[in-house]
Design goal:
The chain is mainly α and 276 residues long. It is built from 13 helices and no strands.
C-alpha cells in the first residue's frame, strides 16, 4: 500500500517481482535447524496452510491498494498526472489464481464473513471506537515510509556482512527493540515456554547445542520476572522439561532427515541488484 501510494511501483510489478512464492523445501530444511522441531510438527497441513496464506495475501494486497488510491489520490495524480487506476490495481480472479497456484486453500467461512459484516456496520463508539479506521496524517505516514527505507538499507548492509563472513545478529525483541531476556516481554516468555514444550515431545533429540544454550541462558536468572511464573502448573512443567533438556545434552543428537530437494519450478529468489 505504501509503495503504491508513493508511486514507487504498481501492484502488477509487485506480483511479478515479489510474487506470492514460498519456498516450502527451504522451510522444511531450515526449520529443524533453527527450532529443533520439524516444520510439519507445527503446521499440520503444509500445502493447505501455505495455500491459504497465499490466497489471503492475494486478496488483501489489492484491497490495501484501493485504500491507498482513495486516501492519497491527489498526491498520486500530482506526482503522475497521467496516472491510470488500472496501472495500480492488480486483480487476480479466482480462476487465474487457481490456474497459477492450485485449489489447495481455505476460504473464509460463514462465521468469518458474518463477523466482517457486523464489524462494518457496528457503531464505532465507546469500547468499539478502535474499529474505526482512520487515515494516518501525513507526518505519520512519512515516518512509516522512512522506517521502511531504513529497513531496506539495513538489510542491504546485512547481505554485505554475509558476503564478507562478518554477519552478527543481535538477539533483539523485534516487537520492542530491546534485548531479548526473561521477563522483558510477556509474549517472549510464552514463546520460549511453548518451544520448550515442543522440544520435549521428541525428547530434545533434534535440539542443537546452540539452541539449548540459548534456552538455558534465557532461563538462567532464577529471579527474572517471567510471566510463566504466574501459573504454577505451567512453571513446574517448564522446570521439569529444562532438567530433561540438561540430561539430554549428553545424549547423541538425532539426525534430521533432509527435505526433498527443490526442483526450482515456480520458485523465484530476486537478485540483490533488483531489490527495491
Amino acid at each position: 500500500m505504501t509503495q503504491v501510494a508513493k508511486n514507487r511501483y504498481s501492484s502488477d510489478r509487485y506480483h511479478d517481482f515479489v510474487g506470492f512464492e514460498i519456498s516450502q523445501g527451504l522451510l522444511e530444511r531450515v526449520f529443524p535447524i533453527v527450532y529443533g522441531i520439524k516444520f510439519d510438527d507445527v503446521v499440520d497441513d503444509e500445502d493447505l496452510a501455505i495455500g491459504s496464506f497465499r490466497h489471503a495475501v492475494s486478496k488483501v494486497i489489492p484491497e490495501m491498494t484501493r485504500v491507498a488510491l482513495l486516501a492519497r489520490r491527489k498526491e498520486i495524480v500530482a506526482d503522475t498526472p497521467n496516472a491510470a487506476e488500472r496501472k495500480y490495481l492488480y486483480y487476480l480472479s479466482r480462476t487465474d489464481y487457481e490456474q497459477e497456484w492450485g485449489t489447495g486453500y481455505r476460504r473464509p467461512g460463514f462465521g468469518t464473513k458474518l463477523l466482517a459484516v457486523v464489524l462494518k456496520i457496528f457503531p464505532k463508539k465507546g469500547p468499539f471506537s478502535g474499529l474505526d479506521f482512520k487515515i494516518p496524517p501525513q507526518p505519520a505516514e512519512d515516518l512509516f515510509v522512512q522506517s521502511i527505507d531504513d529497513t531496506v538499507e539495513s538489510y542491504r548492509h546485512l547481505l554485505q556482512d554475509v558476503d564478507h563472513g562478518s554477519l552478527h545478529l543481535s538477539n533483539k525483541d523485534c516487537d520492542t527493540g530491546r534485548e531479548t531476556r526473561a521477563g522483558e516481554y510477556t509474549l517472549s516468555d510464552a514463546a520460549y515456554a511453548h518451544l520448550v514444550h515442543d522440544l520435549s515431545d521428541n525428547k530434545f533429540t533434534l535440539t542443537s547445542p546452540e539452541l539449548r544454550e540459548n534456552i538455558l541462558a534465557f532461563y538462567g536468572n532464577p529471579d527474572a520476572p517471567l510471566a510463566t511464573r504466574r501459573k504454577k502448573k505451567e512453571w513446574d512443567r517448564v522446570q521439569d522439561e529444562l532438567q530433561e533438556m540438561k540430561s539430554a545434552a549428553a545424549a547423541p543428537r538425532a539426525e534430521i532427515e533432509p527435505a526433498p530437494p527443490i526442483d526450482g519450478a515456480g520458485v523465484r529468489f530476486p537478485s540483490r541488484s533488483r531489490m527495491p
